[in-house]
Write a structure and sequence with these properties.
alpha/beta; Double Stranded RNA Binding Domain; five-stranded mixed sheet; 37% helix
Length: 321
């Protein structure tokens, strides 16, 4: 039997949400190893340091994860804890994802407007209403569903964005349900969830990802005890979809895999930020072939015109460089 370490150091971003996520992870670990010593190493990332520019303008990949991963590579931390949706398609060659705990709500929600569902709230906004988001995927979906709205750049932590909403800087905002769920303190009457089959969430949204050096069998043995198989299959599928479409902050794509009875039902989306074109498709298959399903779905979307969208995005990137 592989021995379990006496203590671990978890590298994490220092945001309020990130630290709450380390509390969640620590609680799961102590439930199976009560004597485990846990230390948290907080790390500031490019995305944290540059609060003024959009993600696309900051550029590059891993703007919220690379510096955290670097602490594992340097030996300063045993594991890195990430919001899985922020991870790059490829990790450092020395590293692996060793654990995906139970997943939180994958959906986006709209804060503002009137109604119960997100669709009702979105439909209630008057023409010209200002809706805040920092996500190019959400921007494309808003333009598809409500082209008469004004979409504005909207960055900051959850408290900051809610304050901007209360100060009428925007009329509504699109946020991740998982962040609201984990931090709490937001009245459920303030927001409505959006249907993920049409309003397709970001790949791996709502999931946590634990990264470590691939040879750390002791950590793999420990974290195996708190992993969730269904969440791991969903995340593997969605990340494979994103990897095939070269996903990043500048590619408006979404993927939602739902595990049930040993299988996965997967919805994928790719949109163009320049036209009204939004491509969607769906596939199903065994969870044991999660990555293959994600890749197959991405190939179908590429064949339906997605390759032209990606080519346009690459041309844009070259022109702006």
């Amino acid at each position: 039997m592989t021995p379990i370490p006496d203590g671990i150091v978890i590298a994490s971003r220092g945001s309020k949400l990130a630290l709450k996520q380390t509390e969640i992870l620590s609680g799961l670990l102590r439930a199976v190893e009560p004597a485990l010593r846990i230390e948290v190493l907080t790390v500031s990332t490019r995305g944290d340091d540059d609060k003024d520019r959009s993600f696309a303008d900051i550029g590059g990949k891993g703007i919220f994860t690379s510096e955290v991963e670097r602490e594992v590579l340097a030996g300063n931390a045993d594991v890195a804890l990430h919001s899985a949706k922020d991870l790059t398609a490829e990790l450092a060659p020395e590293c692996a994802l060793i654990c995906t705990p139970e997943r939180a709500d994958v959906r986006d929600v709209i804060v503002g407007g009137e109604g119960v569902s997100g669709e009702e709230r979105l439909g209630s906004l008057p023409p010209g209403a200002r809706v805040g988001t920092s996500s190019i995927r959400r921007r494309v979906l808003l333009t598809e569903l409500r082209p008469d709205l004004e979409v504005v750049e909207f960055r900051g932590n959850l408290d900051t964005r809610l304050r901007k909403l209360a100060d009428d800087e925007v009329d509504a905002a699109i946020l991740a349900a998982a962040g609201i769920e984990r931090l709490g303190g937001v009245d459920a009457a303030m927001f409505g969830p959006l249907d993920p089959l049409r309003w397709v969430s970001a790949p791996a949204q709502g999931a946590l990802a634990v990264e470590a050096r691939a040879e750390r069998d002791d950590l793999i043995a420990l974290f195996m005890r708190i992993g969730d198989g269904a969440a791991a299959a969903e995340v593997a599928c969605e990340r494979a979809f994103s990897r095939r479409l070269e996903g990043g902050c500048t590619v408006p794509l979404g993927c939602h895999a739902r595990a049930s009875d040993g299988g996965l039902v997967v919805t994928g989306l790719l949109g163009s930020p320049h036209t009204d074109e939004v491509l969607r498709d769906r596939i199903s298959g065994p969870a044991s072939g999660a990555e293959g399903l994600g890749t197959e779905l991405a190939e179908a979307i590429l064949a339906a015109g997605g390759d032209d969208i990606l080519e346009d995005l690459k041309t844009d990137a070259i022109e702006q460089a």
